[in-house]
Amino acid sequence: KIGSFGRFQKIQYLLACFAAVCCSWAAIVPVYILNVPKHRCRVPRLGPADHWGINSSLIEADVPLKKSGCAVPGAADCFEACRLNGGNGTNSTTGCSAGFVFDKSEFIDTFPSELNYVCDAGREVLVTTLVQSQLIGVLIGAWMSGILSDRFGRKPVLIGSMLLMGLSGLASTVSSDPYSFWCFGIEFIGPQARIHAGIVIQYAYAVGLILLVGVAHLLRYWRWLNIAVGALPLFSILLIWLLVESPRWLISRGRLAEAEALIRKAAKVNGVELPTDLELRPPSENVSKTPDSESADDSDRSSPTSSATKSSEQTSFLRVFTNKQTALMTMNMFLQWWVIALVYYGLSLSSGNLPGDIYLTSFLNALAELIGYVVPHALAGRLGRRVTHAGSMFLAAAALCSTIFVELFGPADGGLDWLLVTLAMLGKIGITSAFGVAYLWTAEMFHTGVRQMAVGSSSTAGRAGTLLAPFLADMRKFIASSFGAALPLLISGCLALLAGLTSLLLPETLGIELPETLEDCRRLAAWRSRATVEPQDVGKEIKEQQAVDENANRDSAV
After folding, report:
1. What DSSP character marks residue 446?
2. Of 116, 225, 379, 463, which is least surrounded by CB within 10 A?
């Protein structure tokens, strides 16, 4: 009645987009601050005078040449990175006793170059583990944000996680993805605009990545960049006065007076008149007997404490596992998130490993992500969530699996580097599209009482997958061959294919009302295998059954 996407919702939505920009910076900044620039051993006899661009004739007697992969003979990157000639007329080589010389064309210094964390397997693993430590924080934050948001509300958890993210600098101990704003976005907006709210906010995330490329190019020193990334979320303290709580969450918690005041405020800003006798009622669990109802439900209906039990059901995410259909639906969605997050972060973190300038490849990577979000925005409202999601996964699988042919059979001089980058970008578009649908699709499958926790739990499953992403991205460091370079993308492609096939078993949610109760969620899950049924029919059945249940409640009360 207050409008699907009026002025009030737009203001709140833009505030949530600020959170998305901050999250994108915190998530991808390791690509820059932990980048390992091109390097070689410092020639001891030259001392401080030795630098990356020095005339090759001055060092060719001291630094051995690479055996292959040199496009321009005599160029700086044609020399071995970690060895010096042994001298004394022998063919032996030694380590870099005098330190290293780094290519300063892209960065003044990064964390590995400043501390000489190169040419040492133990130190290289440590750098990879630093990225993993951040992702462990993301996993913990995703789990905690779901629990805390359903208990204390979307607003305080969103603002709190943003402030913690800023204060923690690298955000290695808190979530770099406060999922409150996703549920906030769709819960405050009507069904007609829900597809836009669920995906457009991710445009802000992609725009944040593009902005980060510019900031990283401007600063070029990892400490300065780290300070900039940590300072931005601190501005979220202003959201205390600007952001409002989700009205759906307030209603689900029985705080009807606050919800009504908020709805009337939104209506006033949107220029909509509401009736003076507006009545809000918290959603109640269905009480009709269904084939999938547990015996415990029957006892609840005859118990004087049934209302308390229903309220408990509403806020207990574990209840979805008491029914086979909702349990399978939930586990399938967990699998989708696990694969998507692993592949997505693997591609994002390996963007610095792609051939070419890191700022150009990072910009293309961010642009591919933006395009990836446009795809579900354009298609999910027409083709449905399921078809769009599965198609995106199949695109990613085809593109990523194809890269193995370029790596294994392409020319050693890098003549097909453009094709490798193109295929990687197509893979990023596909997996990003699937990510864009997953947020919206997950939130639409679960009822209001546990919706935020469902998104948070699904995200936790995904973040468990991201723990492997740093090692997947750096696999080429540990398997020194063309196959080792191709293996990360090949593994990602195979996983995307598996997830795409299993996603076809999930229910379609296009055009249906958001489930309000656990029974609504069960009915939706029961339609997962009925591909010939229009999704609108699912919503119609849910509404009709809710009306029957309400009439039954009134009759029993009389």
Report:
1. S
2. 116
Residues of the chain with pLDDT under 70: 1-6, 8, 67-77, 87-91, 138, 142-143, 145-146, 150, 168-199, 269-271, 274-315, 412-414, 478, 480-482, 484, 527-558
Whole-number Å distance between alpha carbons of 61 and 57 = 8
Listed residue (204, 203, 208) closest to 232, CA to CA: 208
Question: What is the domain partition of the chain in residue ranges?
Answer: 7-35+122-247+320-503, 38-103
Residue pointed to by tokens 């208990």? 151
User: Can you read off the two tokens belonging to residue 507?
Assistant: 């229910």
Q: What pLDDT is attached to residue 290?
A: 39
Nearest-angstrom CA–CA distance, 176 and 160: 12
Dihedral sign computed on CA atoms, order 457, 459, 462, 464: negative
pLDDT tens string 24-77: 888 888 889 888 888 888 888 888 888 888 888 888 888 887 766 565 555 666
The pTM for the full model equals 0.72
Q: What angle do CA 365, 371, 377 make, to 5 degrees?
A: 145
Q: What CATH code would you report for 7-35+122-247+320-503?
A: 1.20.1250.20
Backbone angles phi, psi at 547, to 5 degrees: -65, -40
- Residue 84 pairs with which residues in a beta bridge? 94
Instruction: Report how far apart, in Å, the C-alpha atoms of 508 and of each of 54, 111, 185, 220 are.
Output: 61, 46, 20, 46
**Cα separation of 23 and 31, whole Å?**
14
